[in-house]
């Protein structure tokens, strides 16, 4: 629970205080969510303490003393509505390669922690010409999907099922969270980057055709509507998650119209969020800055193709694609999967030896739980994952260990609190 105190606390008007006649009653109500004085926002503490010589402070003193003496207890995460705890059905696409291994890992952990979700399972392969109608219908009904990686054929006439799903369900925002995990040694520290990528147009529009033999034309489509929509999502995400900066990644120096409309949209939206720092960076310079000084970035908003490159680069810097969570979200539906696409289907040797890294999809499933408004289950899963990583005993080969998928899963379950 956070407050933006732009004025002294005694000047703020709170409608919920109607009917409370005294300052002490009002302050008691305002402070009720905080279980100790030490958990109050720093600004509020300083505002109250700075009034020590006033009559208002004298009225506050008994309340503050009472708060200081209370025993600490768990903070209130949110107040559920009746029925919020009802189990939710989630569409599960196991995917190709290591997909069945890592989605199976998620199912085991969810069952062990008694999470209020159950799965509607489907087998979908990346070489299918289109997603089966029953899968699309299941996602539309359930609103949420957890997905293993789908292998996209290189060349040929088969379109990417991943792109098809995003367009069919209008999952316009891809979010990949790249951050350092304690105990996992990397070249750079203090990396905590959220890459937000436009998911439905740009170079992924799929508008390609042969002009004459030996000449192919591929169209990059950019619209004001989609550019503004992804910019709003990025700034709203930054605002709601107490992020301080949004960086727009572009190539408007060369693609002056296409990337120009994206940049213009970001600038317009940025003006609506004066508390968030906004800057811009050309994509080639962005890649150089990522590998040399990644800690300078916070939230990054990008067109489609650049976002894929930036997210995978940031994931590699922060600890590897096997530990970075992500999801694709629209107004009505969301699909959660491994954040970085590189290596999300693994190889035959990993499948044969059952040594796929389940961390990325487990963390993505924690994002899913939070999306479903089950924050305490998400917290439990994330804490257990971080304990396993920091202890270093159970790690798959990509993280410097030799554990199997099942050994990592068992360790996570053992660390659930």
UniProtKB/TrEMBL annotation:
Its subcellular locations are: Mitochondrion
> How far does the signal peptide extend, from start to end residue?
none
UniProt record, GO biological process: isocitrate metabolic process; tricarboxylic acid cycle
- Whether Metal-binding counts among this entry's keywords is yes
Keyword terms, alphabetized: Magnesium, Manganese, Metal-binding, Mitochondrion, NAD, Oxidoreductase, Transit peptide, Tricarboxylic acid cycle
* Family note: Belongs to the isocitrate and isopropylmalate dehydrogenases family.
Summary of the function given for this chain in its UniProt record:
Performs an essential role in the oxidative function of the citric acid cycle.
Q: Kindly provide the name given to this protein in its UniProt entry.
A: Isopropylmalate dehydrogenase-like domain-containing protein
- Per the UniProt entry, what species is this protein from, by scientific name? Camellia sinensis var. sinensis
Its lineage opens with: Eukaryota, Viridiplantae, Streptophyta, Embryophyta, Tracheophyta
